Amino acid sequence: MAPPVPLSLVDQPEPQPLKLHQALGHHNYSNVFTFYLNGVKQSLLNPNPQGTLLDYIRSTGLTGTKLGCSEGGCGACTVVVASWDPVENKEV
């Protein structure tokens, strides 16, 4: 004989799937990609989705970042990604 099912589970309505806008929440979206490169603010309007960070860095005239194996395994194209912590007043 199966154990009794708690009433709280029986009385629950069937969960409804979320609509896309509900799942994503209420966010403002932009076609501008903004970041800092060596402390200088960069804002790209409608960036190429197939472009790479390496392509952009090289287009600014910086040559320290290299392309090695084209797979990310060798580390030649490694860059530091950080964010600003306003509480600590430093990059993290």
From TrEMBL:
The 2Fe-2S ferredoxin-type domain, residue ranges: 31-92
Protein origin, superkingdom: Eukaryota
Pfam family, one: Fer2
Coiled coil ranges: none
SUPFAM superfamilies reported in the protein's UniProt record: 2Fe-2S ferredoxin-like (SSF54292)
One MF term in the entry's GO annotations: 2 iron, 2 sulfur cluster binding
Organism: Trichomonascus ciferrii
Keywords from the named record: 2Fe-2S, Iron, Iron-sulfur, Metal-binding, Molybdenum
Name of the protein in its database record: 2Fe-2S ferredoxin-type domain-containing protein
InterPro entries recorded: 2Fe-2S_ferredoxin-like_sf, 2Fe-2S_ferredoxin-type, 2Fe2S_fd_BS, Ald_Oxase/xanthine_DH-like, Beta-grasp_dom_sf
